[in-house]
Amino acid sequence: MINELMIIIFAPLLAGVLAWIFDVKGIREGVAIIGAAVPLAYLIQAYQTLASQPSIQYSIVLSGFKFEFILYHLSWVFAMIAGVVGFAAVLGMVSTAKDSYEWLFALMSLTGVYGVFLADDLISFFIFWEIMTFASFMMVLKYNRKASLKYFLLSVLGAYAMLIAIGIIYAKVGAFDFTSVQRVFYQDAMRSVMGSDTLFSRNELLLIFGLFLTAFGVKAGTFPLHVWAPDAYSETNQSYTAMFSGVLSKAGVYGMLVIYILLGTRLMYEFGNIGAAPKFGYVIAFLGGITIIVGGLLAALQEDIRKLFAYSSISQIGYILVGIGVGTALSIEAAIYHAISHALFKGLFFLIVATIIHRTGKTQFKDMGGLAEKMPVTFAMAFVAILSLAGIPPLVGFASKWLIFEAVIHQNMPILGGMLFFGSAIGFVYLIRFTYAVWFGQRPTELDDTKDAPLPLAIAMGILALLNVVFGIAPGIVAGELNKIFGKEIIQGTIWELNLGFGRYNGLFITIWLVVGILIAAVIYFLGAKVRRVPVTDTYQAGNPVTMDYNLTIRRNFFLPLKETLAFWLRMSFDRLYQDIGSWVEDLAETLRHYIYNGNVQAYAWYLAAILIILALWGV
Amino acid sequence: MMVIETALKALLILLYATFVGFMFMGIIRIVTARIHRRVGPPIYQPILDTIKLLSKKSSITHGLIYDFGIIYALGATILALMFIPLGGVSILRAYGDLILITFLLEIPMLGIMFAAMSSGNPWAGLGAQRALLTLLAIQVPLGFAIVALGEFYGTFSTYQIVMAQQSMGWSITSLPLLLAAVAYDLVLQAMFGKEPFDIMIAPGEISLGPMVEFGGKHMGILQIQHAIALFAETLFFSNIFLGGAVITAFASPIINTLATLVVLLIKQTAVLMVAIFIGAIFPRFTIDQAARFYWKWPTIIAAAGAILAAL
Amino acid sequence: MVDWRLFEPLFEFARRKSLWIVAFCTGCGGIEMPPLMTSRYDLERFGMMPNPAPRMADLFLITGYVTPKTLKRIIITYELQPDPKYVMAHGSCPLNGGVYWDAYNAIKHLDKYIPVDVIIAGCMPRPEAVMDGINKIMEMIEKGTADGWKRYKENYEYYRKNQDELFGEGWREKEARRWIPWLMDRKKEE
Amino acid sequence: MNLQFASLLIALPLISAFFVPVIKTISRKAVMPFLVIITAVQTGIAAWVFEEVYTGGKPIIIMAGGFKPPVGINLYIGHFAALFVLIIAVAGFFMAVFSMKSIGVEPKDKYAMLFLLLMLGATGMISTGDIFNLFVFMEITAISAYALTAYNKTGEASEGAMKYIVLGGIGSSFFLVGIALIYGSLGTLNMAQIAQLAGNINPTVAQAALALLVFGLAVEAELFPLNAWAPDAYQAAPHPVTAMFSAFVVKAGLYAMVRIIYLLRDTQAFTGILRLVLILGTITVVIGELSALRQTNVKRMFAYSSIAQVGFMAVGFSLGTQAGASAGVFHMVNHAIVKALMFLAVGYVALELGGTSIEDFKGLGKKMPLTAFAITVGAISIIGIPMFNVFWSKIQLILAALKVGKTGVIALILGASLVEAVYYIRLIHTMWFESANGEKVKENFTLGVIMLLLVALIIVIGVFPNAAWNIAQKAAADLYNVSQYIKNVPLLPGVSP
Predict the structure, then answer these.
(1) Nearest CA to A506 among A398, A597, A617?
(2) How far apart are alpha carbons D288 and D296 in whole angstroms?
(3) Which of A492, A498, C159, D10 has the fewest Cβ atoms within 10 Å of its own Cβ atom?
(4) Residue A532 domain-assigned?
(5) Which residues in chain B come in under a pLDDT of 70?
(6) Between chain A and chain C, are at least 3 CB pairs below 8 A?
(7) ipTM value of the model?
(8) Alpha carbons D121 and D253: distance in angstroms, whole number
(9) What is the pTM of this model?
């Protein structure tokens, strides 16, 4: 009997390879679904085990490295995110995936992400991190070279940063597994408190922290390393993006948590706190805050449906980082909660986008409109997702956002609080833009025979939408799991209620009273006169007759005034900066090669002479 | 029994809020008229308007969302109302969380936007866009004001804040919250949709923006929603900044409640008056001017308040 | 279901007391509206309110002469209004052409195209006269004789015939071509 | 079976090289098959020796004419030598097979002879235990390499060969001077004895000698800037020869350099030279990668890339720790496999589509899926993606370097490998996702099998690196701890200068 953790990690990869080899339509989809379902089943089964014992562990030795894997509450929660959203995304891909290539790499990235979440030592963490990056990169490469290259370079940069950090730690600690690394840093912290000299000097600590921050920041899409995300998220199979943005970005979040787990105490003692929040967390938190604002504003100004949601997920990740950065138990729980809800609604959103693109073949807002009548099911899903992301009670989006708000403001962090509020408003803004341009208004005639979502996509969306609602009405379910991570009741309350002591939120009451209010309104509505359905052209245009020949809907530059207001800030772009650096390097390289390998043998002989002289000076 | 009592209470609150809300709308029109040296309509005029609109004999719809958005807006407003402490008689005051109420006061607009945009009228779209950008603009000072409150009192429960004010005086008597209150009041101006921030419904320019397609009972429901929202927003403001009111001086709870309501009514009217006066004498900002304004002064004031409260 | 006839008097009162106006100010009469609205004659006393959107309007003011071009808008705007709706025409031009009685391009009889409840004679009627007309229409609403909207429904063929005679068949679609150029950006892009 | 038969590793290619003209007089057609058969036999012997050494755990010492060293010349086939002899033989065999298809230019008999001599030289360089003998073998390798470079009778071929000759000549002459210095001061040419006596050598002489030896070998080992000949030679040489250059000729030079440096560990010059090699290696990596960045000729691009990889190995060895040496050896093995595969594939593409410019690779995935797949796997492996072999050696190397605190160097190298990722990914995208014109090519079965073998090797090592890693560690140990080396060689007692 091979170990269940191994099954959880490698089942998707195996399925992917099989699907790739037996490239038969029907078979490969079945295999892939099984490959995505098996880990989920094992995780659900593992829940029973975790109730009795603290963790499940497993380790193997390979090329001199001991690879250790562990499944405990934290990794279980994250793995469940991967499991559910990954499964939904795979279902979606059944409709949208074109060839076995996509199956192979989509499932490979799922394996990678499972590995990252279950890894218990730095090397396997790194290796699965790389696998995840590589697989997702291949998914993008198929669609767009430039975007994929940008993504890969930034990711590999991050990965190498992580590698160096790991190496530095290894050189001092002599071990890779989390427990011993954590122990060493803890002892270090104690030493620094005692005042005796520490194993890692302050600067080394800063270096390691910075390197890790870079590594995880890239994957999470933190400002200013977010530039890859919009292109990469949009230039691939959108069903896959549900996984890409919903799960893979959570690997970066998980990494931030790993920083806490490993270096937390040491950093806290070295750099001190502000209030109850560690100073080093402030870096993360403020980066997160800026990410919220930048991502949100740019999302509002996009003209491409995929890009809008790409930026939106950057912005949402910002929330999670703020929660993590504040660094109290409550705020971290809030952050994980938001990680869950973000995975749920953003996965749902990208599946919706996948449906729209699958059915209409359009990606620009200017080509869409009035689809609500043609795709009612999809629109219903979109409605749930919109309310959830905009943070409308009683949906999961609000519960998690509310937790983050309370956690942050309770720590007396005014600026971050303001950033969060701005973020929620900008969420409204870009969502309405999406709603208006895609679902409402006048429908271009070429979309008149658009069909509704295909069954697999519909099922996938249904799963996620249902979870959105359930976890919103009964937020205590999630809160209970999160409390297990810290082993104490940080969020009290029943399954309906979150009670922080200084603030309460009850999903059930809100639902009830919302229903009551809507009933009252409905009564008034139905007492009124009968309504007559009119076409979209029967609308007031200063008395001008309206026909379908014209575009009644504002589809381009919907937020032009915003653009004008922000004109100054929009002029600076990190994306362009990086591209310039890239081209500089290329030119430099070309010049170098041109001058060094100039094909002139005398020059080569002179090199020899030069080296000889150097040697002589060296020697004598 | 419990349920019936609650339901009765809720109904009473609802009726009271609606009635007072309509009165407020009437007051707005009268006072504005007086400032214009006009006679102005009778104070019950908004009620007549609503009855007329509801009694229209024909009415159109642009689809399911067009109707549902309206209903949702009113429902959400009623929901918000239930969470705001109204002296001692509100239903869910125990769950009246600052953040929650702030969100709840915003979501009716979402419903209206959905309905308006589903009509496909370009002016409705334009109005929605402007309304959203106004929302975006006010969100920053609003957020800072809320943050200041939360940090100052260390709790998010509106009711506890009211109680605290009973003992330690109104919020605006302390500097940080005074700043927050100033910023919040500027925000209220946009929440009421009064000048100078009513570009979203600019009647002459985009013919009421989001409202352009609503007629008959849709508009009537929106009038009711507007009335309740007016009541709720003023009530919220006077609760968190003007000390609310919890009167226990008299023996019988009935009289206590009535006295509470009266006190609250006075405070709400005061809040309303400020808004009217500002609105009556100012011209209209374009949307980017409004955004720049809100992101400059109110934000600075509110942020100062929040930071002071944090220290 | 509630029997709404009981409330009919209340409704009539409300309708009478809150007339929201769509003012079609193309003619010279447009200049008479500002004094009516502002502090001199303050129409708001009667709960009347200028209102840009026809969807929620009750009273449709046509202030002055009507040309075919404006008539098209008048008809469309009128049809957008929900019942019950009332029309009031200022001046002699809508009544019988007035000074344009022999102009080739002015509509002589507005009530051939839409039902008009009250026509205020005069060229131009002063605000007092207009307010007199408003009183008149309020009385008519009370008596229930302001039934233009019913007549338009009943004799729609008649009105439609006159309109089509004037403009030709399918004029709504045809004419739409040249108007609203700012709505044609999709065409411009391609 | 008598271990002395291992000397066949040297003898077989030599003798058969001289038999080639005879074969030719019998039949022109038989030359190439003869070459293949000889290399196959050589592979068999090498495999046997490998098996013997790694099971027996003791190195095989072959004394010419039974004279004990230092009087007689001895061959020392330790773990490292056994491993690399095997690699040389296998690569030689594959390339011989490839040559049957790829070499159309006459005179093939000369080609076969030079081919065998090249193998002989490399084998000798790796397995000899005598420093002058090393020089001789190096010259054999070099000269046959020059000739093979110029084998395609084109202008650029002769130009590349010319450059190679000039630089190589300078290098080996200085190498000779270095040997002379050593001999003059120690009076012995036997490596073991040199190592034994290295302690009491005059430091100045030691430094000068070491410097000259390193200098001479660095030319063969392609360290910057002594590698200027490499790009032209690689591009101009026949495809199998290029593959062999990259697969073992360079590594033989590198081996010789490292071996000598380690032998003279006891001298003061040791650390200084190590630092020098470290610097050279780093620069080699950086310059190599950067130069490859905008190459439009794929073969030349691979040439630069392999230069950079050699820099990696040099850095690994110059760390001066056991871990570093192991990593270096491991990287040598992996790189030999990958580069053999890639140059083979590129050569094959050039054969089929008539060129190695990037244009010819457009839509290769449609035209020659197998070859494209092979190149892709190789590229991904070189970039250092997990589950492919190079990843392991790279990570071992980096960890070793960081253990001795060389963070800056590592940062530089990793930055350079970012560049590597760029140009390889561009190539992959061009191959698979760009529009192809031209019909599908029927791919040669034998070459396909060879490529698939190598691909399988890459992936197997990538997934289960244990075995390869242990072998590499053993080999590195053989290279690293010199005291063991001295013990292994049965020096004639009492004979000392």
Answers:
(1) A398
(2) 15
(3) A492
(4) no
(5) none
(6) yes
(7) 0.83
(8) 11
(9) 0.87
